[in-house]
Amino acid sequence: MLYSLAGGGTLCGVAALVLLIVSTATDFWMQYRYSGSSANQGLWRFCINHKCHAHTITVAFWDATRAFMLLAVLSCFAGVVLGLSAFTNGTKNRRVRTGGIALVLSGFLALLALAIYTGVTVTFFGKRFLDWRFSWSYIIGWVAIILAFAAGVFQLCAYQRTTAEPAPSNNADS
């Protein structure tokens, strides 16, 4: 049971890590119509007519979203590594707890990033462009948040189970 919880947490953490990397790196967070053609916008670039360009202006909400997403990726990576390393020493290790905390922190950081992006996008771009929508990378980011939180909870439950179990008795002394 303990290895199932820790293993499930690590598996969810790996899936969250992959999804966080994909959602952070792609250019499909928002789609809208611009001068009669479709445009895509990501955290790093925007694309119009299949030609991508780097963001030339520095906008605070993009910087904050980028920073929180990168911190979420790093925290998720640390949680996965700690979760995997706990299997070499058994789940009665504090690495499971630390990995669970790192994964919950990863979910929280990604939640902050997407909340900032959502709030600014809806208030600013919602008025500017009539035909806009959030794209698949943005939705993948929300799925990664759910997986990161679930992974952290699984690993924290695995640690709680190991600390709640009594130590095996040694009958060799009797």
From TrEMBL:
InterPro entries: LMIP, PMP-22/EMP/MP20-like, PMP22/EMP/MP20/Claudin, PMP22_EMP_MP20
TM helices/strands, residue ranges: 67-88, 100-126, 138-159
GO molecular function, one term: structural constituent of eye lens
Family matches, as Pfam families: PMP22_Claudin
Localization in the cell: Membrane
Keywords, alphabetical: Membrane, Transmembrane, Transmembrane helix
Gene3D superfamilies (alphabetical): 1.20.140.150
Keyword Membrane applies: yes
PANTHER family: EPITHELIAL MEMBRANE PROTEIN-RELATED (PTHR10671), LENS INTRINSIC MEMBRANE PROTEIN 2.2 (PTHR10671:SF106)
Protein name, entry field: Lens intrinsic membrane protein 2.2
Organism of origin: Seriola lalandi dorsalis
Lineage, opening ranks: Eukaryota, Metazoa, Chordata, Craniata, Vertebrata
